[in-house]
Amino acid sequence: MNHGQEDHGGGGCCGGGSHGHGHHGVVAGPGEELVTCAVRGTAQVKSQAEARGLTRDFEGERYYFCCGHCAELFDADPHAYTTAA
């Protein structure tokens, strides 16, 4: 889901000044799955997000993040990113 996207100000942790939304050049290799950052809506390689601890389980669903900052934003107010707009 991609609700209530935050502005990280000046690019922040998520791609250093990326514009808009999308894959940020993320490409999944053979057998890899892409997931979406619950805060920014950007694509991430699922196995890499899991390896870096950038996942959260909330109300029976697993959410993925592109960086620690997005995970912290989610932790602070998960409903802002999981409630339908």
Automatic annotation (TrEMBL):
Domain YHS: 57-84
Gene3D superfamilies found in the cross-reference section: Ribonucleotide Reductase, subunit A
Pfam families on file: YHS
Origin superkingdom: Bacteria
One MF term in the entry's GO annotations: oxidoreductase activity
Full protein name: YHS domain-containing protein
Organism this protein belongs to: Georgenia satyanarayanai
